[in-house]
Amino acid sequence: MTARTAQEQNATTSAQSEAGLSGPARHGDQAPESGERTATTGSPGLASAVLYVCAVRGTLTPSLAADRAEAEGREFAQARGLSLAETVTDPYGEPDPCRREGWQRVRKLAESAEVGVVITRWPASIAPNSCHDLRHREIQWLQDHGVRVRYSWAPLAAGGYPTPDTSPRGDR
Known about the structure:
Blueprint: H1 3-18, E1 36-39, E2 47-55, H2 64-79, E3 82-91, H3 101-111, E4 117-120, H4 132-144, E5 148-151, H5 154-157
Parallel strand pairs: 2-3, 2-4, 4-5
Antiparallel strand pairs: 1-3
């Protein structure tokens, strides 16, 4: 099994675990630099979203995982009529999202009602599976502010998600 295939399989298991479909899994994807943001232009009238990328840096191609996550997130947004307000990145490694500069920016965008959706590749981008309580805390905080979390990785995006813990309260 290739490293990429194993990583994708672990991400699927992770999301299924959050939905109560299987046991825990691990994630490993890392992004560029802490708090890096890219402003994007969106079409007026579309729901506004922030694309959050937190991915492991590879040895041979350090930005490959982050580049893939960003491209995938952009495609996800476009296919669903979402306008990207910003792309925010963090380096993978800090388990508590509140201690990451980029995630703090995501929270500010949510708190100020500038975005209604956070798009990220998979659940462990928010917090690793070993710290799933931190991820649930953050998803709940976003929901409390009227923001929905959506996963852009195809098996999660097409697999009946969002899960109950990623839908706004009115969608439960």
